[in-house]
Write the structure tokens for this entry.
Amino acid sequence: MMEKKGGHGTRKKGGLVTMPFIFANEVSEKLAVVGFNANMISYLTTQLHMPLTKAANTVTNIGGTASLTPLLGAFLSDAYVGRFWTVTVASIIYQIGMILLTLSAVLPQLRPPPCEVGTQVCQEADFGQVAILYISLLLGALGSGGIRPCVVAFGADQFDEADPKQNTKTWKYFNWYYFVMGVSILVAVTVLVYIQDNVGWGWGLGVPTIAMLISIVTFIGGYPLYRNLDPAGSPFTRLVQVMVAAYRKRKLPMVSDPKLLYQNDELDASISLGGKLLHTKHMKFFDKAAIVTEEDKQLKYGEAPNLWRLNTVHRVEELKSVIRMGPIWAAGILLITAYAQQGTFSLQQAKTMDRHLSKSFEIPAGSMSVFTYSTMLLTIVFYDRIFIPVARHFSGLDRGINFLHRMGIGFAISILATLVAGFIEVKRKNAAMASGLIDHPHSIIPISAFWLVPQYSLHGMAEAFMSIGHLEFFYDQAPESMRSTAMALFWLAISFGNYVSSLLVSIVHKCSAGPNGSNWLKDDNLSKGKLEYFYWLITLLQVVNLIYYLCCAKLYTFKPIQIKSKEGGSSEEGGMELANRV
């Protein structure tokens, strides 16, 4: 991975110089996704005339599907084509979806006619119009499925963990990544949402479509600079091979010494470039996959074993690492469920409140999440510049605190966010009742929308801690050859969180319905519902989730890895060292 540099020697590929090319792709993807999603519920209710609960579930279902497809993109990347080509092809698919979505917003025949003036009689979008919308969103979901897990892992790949000059930059990269992503999201929820509400949906979707095209050209243009890691074969196949081998040898007694388990550095070379996983004492059943039987001893020198019968310790530990990550991964689902309410019910709250900054300027309801992302950005800067140096002084860790502690802080802040949201909803309803507008759902209640700022800001603070910690956790603790797949797990948690939100909304809407038309989540009049109860239900669920997470974090075992240290970036390998990279 060396290239000539002006005849004065060689320069390693990767490093900071690649970041603008990689971040350009991520910025455009976030502009497109967030620029539409932040205001999607408005588009569905005002342009396609969907009922509120149906629109809310459509938003979260689409978000869930878009977060599910990264599993497919990660699999193709890790197993066959590598991260660069996965991102490139996925970006082109995404571009096609954006073009189709823009056309659906521009062409009148792809939307139902406007509501009848004065009667509020609205015709809901027909099957064909909804189908066009969903096809464009599906292409976008497939495209983002290749971009999301691979861009973040591809960026981290540009820093060589074995190089002392670069290995400390990997964890900093996740802060940079989330900061750049946050800035692009901030632009999306302000500039793009303003264009959608005041200029038109055609330009509101056309701008990110053009930006996506530019980013594709930029990303491909950086190819000569990238540090590309070759795909190492299907990670899922390797995991299944270990399980099958362990099951076939389930009746064998365990060996007395783990050193007797099968090792083959040559076989594992392509999947352990950064270091070999060492044996752990947990989940001993899977160790049976590495027991060498008399039949296995018949192998000729240099002959590869049947991996459905015999696996190396490294491959067994890959499976153990993935299993150990599962409980921590699951804890992140409910935080996304809480966070998802910003794009549905919090937005609907904002639409009923006074959003004027001045007599002539009103903040679009979809732009209220600007407070989430601005707080997230400020928290990231505070964390990187102030919190880490102070924490490093006490903990001795280069990153200040480990990612499990960082995630725990995020969970606690998220609990406070939904608790506060419930009290603010009570205040909003009291204002509606005092002004006599509780029976007028389309009227603006004389209460400032800035009362919603605390819940938005707390969610942003929680994301800066929890989501970045989650990314660090997956990249650091996943087997090296499965890092795209690990990034997909991050998005899978987001997918499940959105689906749980849809399920929770449906259950609450059904179970809270009264014979007199009362409901916690009313479609036609939010002020006559009990949205605060819904927020407090999520708060209670998050408290239980935090207790669960603390138990999982307490019991979690960091992966032990044997890495080769390098001095000064030279090609000479130093001594071997055992590192729990926390």
Summary: The two ends are 28 Å apart (CA to CA). Residues 70-106 form the longest helix (37 residues).
